[in-house]
Amino acid sequence: MARQLSRRKFVVYSLAASTLTVAAPLGCDAATAEGAEPTAAATRTPSDVLVTGTDGEMLVLEVTKANKVVVRLPRVEVGQGVTTAVAMMIAEELDARLVDVAIPLADARTKGNQFTGGSSSVSSLYGPARELAALARAKLVTAAARRWNLPARSLRTRNTKVIAPDGRSATFGSLTASAARIRRPAVSSKPKPASRHRVIGKPTTRIDARDIVTGKAKYAGDLAVAGAKPTVVVRPPTLGGKLVSVDSRVARAMPGVHAVVKVAGGVAVVAESFHHAFRARDALRITWAPGPLVSLSDAAIRSRLRAAVPRLGDPPRGSTQTEGEFEFAFVSHAPMEVLTAVADVRANRAEIWFSSQTPMDARASIASAVGLPESKVKVHVMRGGGSFGRRLNHDAAIEAALISKAARRPVKLMWSRADDIRHGRMRPASHHRIRASHARGRVVAFTHATASVSESYEGQGLSAQGSAQGPAQGRVTPAVARAAGPLPSDSGLYNFGRVSGDSGSVELAIPLGAWRSVDSGTMRTAEEIVVDEVARSLGKDPVAFRRTTLRDKAVKAVLDKVADAGDWGRTLPAGQAQGVAVHEEYGSCVACLVEIDAADPKNPRVTKVVMAADVGTAVNPRGLEAQLMGTAIDGISTVLQAGLHIDRGAVRESSYADFHYARQRHAPLSFEAHIMPSRREPGGAGELGVPAAAGAVANAYARATGTKPRRFPLNF
Amino acid sequence: MPSYSFVLNGKPVTVEAPADMPLLWVLRDMLNVTGPKYGCGVGVCRACTSHLDGGEIQPCVVRVADCANREVTTIEGLADGDTLHPVQQAWLDRDVAQCGFCQPGQIMAAAALLKKTPHPTDADIDDIENVCRCGTYSRIREAIKKAAANG
Ligand code: FES
Ligand code: FES
């Protein structure tokens, strides 16, 4: 497989300050970090970085006098464990105790890479974070050497302290002021070789685990700031429906109601509590005009998608065909924490608190929506209760800002669960036509044509939607941009002769968004099903067939690992079967083996999941295991039971009661993740497992039931 | 406005609220007790799960009037000071949480289950309805078994 992760170089700076503070620039994305511009950053005066309280485009590390190491992270924590991974990198190079490292989330910045997505966080931070901490360590050691008048080389660091051969020790906090004055460290400031890692690669508990289990972890809705009042919005019954008239007299007269204001998406109620807000919302008498999709339901969308799939060319002469057409329904992101934003918009400034994967874009969009210069808009990034791509868009933050402006008061806007599921966003529905051509027992050509729904609006109706492709389009949003990139089947995962693909689309006024693993979640899943069907038609075992046709050693190794650990081929009772699938992306690869009990095909249970992943250096193997576990549940949910129906222009589902994301009774009784040892730099991992898990579930279902799964979710 | 008194996490509280106000919003919006989370408001996601007189409830569908003169425990009141409840400790040991949003409810559901059924079977655990959108179910299962073994 193509390893595109080159060894990157970073220039690390020391900032003049009264405590030791070092900074490393972050490029626009991992790929451009190579050419980081030292001149621009070097001329930045230290006060820009520190006194104003923003970090510019830098990753800044500060050692406080209280012996804390603080790095304000230009990423968002939504459960993927990035704060823990970065804390581990810092602790590793500094020889600090993990509990002494704090990773608050940075406010929206004006420059640099503050994008969380595309499974890029760990790989983009691995270099800068370690370089930064290694320089800080060198300065602390040098400061201690001067204090004690000992050769710097004779000193060790451990547990957030510098230790002398005679046993004397000094905390980093006690050295920070003098370390800040060191210009040239007397020991190496290079990161450790991987062979000396003691923290990186060691399974580590999340740094926020205790806050979570005690209920202390704060999400946007838990904030009591700026006197913000609970706010909800009544939305149209159909997607994109328009307000014709509203009678709010009863609602306004209800106790605890502070304001009722019209917004682009409906009518907002600001009240004393969410109870009062919901009651008043339900008392609004509204006439709606139906949205633009009112004549459209699933069946029509499916046939338009089918018609939009480009024709497959002629197969190689003399070959035999294995073909399949696959359909995937819309899927809600449905993060556990509904979209929530606190906004305080005044005449000359605005302040917003919410969880965002794209805070720089968000600030630009909010500023233009409320008519303020960007410099007057402050965006505080909060931890998020899940995202799966949903927080790439900032719909709720823009809406909250507009409501705050109209109501002239700070608001805490919360989308209800029904708002979240019925008004977007969604993974687009798609249709796939795949053909594998084989001759003399080998695949000689493989082609995959697809069509998916794409979001498009006539006119300005939904300007407050906060699309990641919105006003600040020039900024980097790879996860979204990738949708237009090459087809995943072009990656040449298999030795399948001539590989080709093409895509079409159906444009609809429907709110869509990148969903964990984006196009691969459907495309690669469908391809892995076809790989199994090819194996069957060639009379070969699915694992053996993959082993002989996969190109890359690393992918074969993860496949072998799951086959071995999962006891591939073991005998199971009728109605039960194993299934397997592989995937590579983000410089990483993964295999998944599942066992399913589909004796009742309407009520199948995945009983066991075994995954193996090679992601290069796994900074926190326990965090990686958690990500794989999550993608296994995504695979089970999207293949077997969780999707959205469109009925006459509206989403039929409205909560987890009918959007059937897996619960405990659908989760495997046994889950194992195997992490392949590697000293390569980290690849991406957060989204990696989805296609392999989904493919393995579908293949197991096919083998257990003797059917060919074609339309997902299967029980819908 | 009627007023209701109940014991919240060991301390008496009195609130003036409409009788039909769900406990969830009394806790979150009036008392600033934000551990119980909103995930649906209709009793299906279980993110708000807390205890009423030691049994599991979903505060989003329990009226404050029905809590009068009773004992309400939220995630904030589960530990004994700095000593975590065995379920919280098992959650920490097994590093269950991802985004964490469902976990106060998951922990309260597990604690209520173990109180009734000290040694739950897989089928008992399967009956837990709480949604975890991050998919932490395997670790939840292990943590419950661990807490059962330690309790
Ligand atoms: S908020 Fe979903 S059950 Fe209470
Ligand atoms: S940990 Fe995120 S929803 Fe359960």
TrEMBL record, chain B:
Keywords, comma-separated and alphabetical: 2Fe-2S, Iron, Iron-sulfur, Metal-binding
* Pfam families listed in its UniProt record: Fer2 (PF00111), Fer2_2 (PF01799)
Q: SUPFAM superfamilies given for it?
A: 2Fe-2S ferredoxin-like, CO dehydrogenase ISP C-domain like
Domain 2Fe-2S ferredoxin-type per the UniProt entry, residue ranges: 2-78
Molecular-function GO term, any one: 2 iron, 2 sulfur cluster binding
Which InterPro entries does the annotation name?
Answer: 2Fe-2S-bd, 2Fe-2S-bd_dom_sf, 2Fe-2S_ferredoxin-like_sf, 2Fe-2S_ferredoxin-type, Beta-grasp_dom_sf, Diverse_Oxidoreductases
Q: Would you indicate the residue range of the signal peptide?
A: none
Q: Does the keyword Iron-sulfur apply?
A: yes
Instruction: Report if keyword Iron is assigned.
Output: yes
Q: Which PANTHER family match?
A: BLR6218 PROTEIN (PTHR44379:SF2), OXIDOREDUCTASE WITH IRON-SULFUR SUBUNIT (PTHR44379)
What name has this protein been given in UniProt? (2Fe-2S)-binding protein
Give the originating organism. Answer: Streptomyces phyllanthi
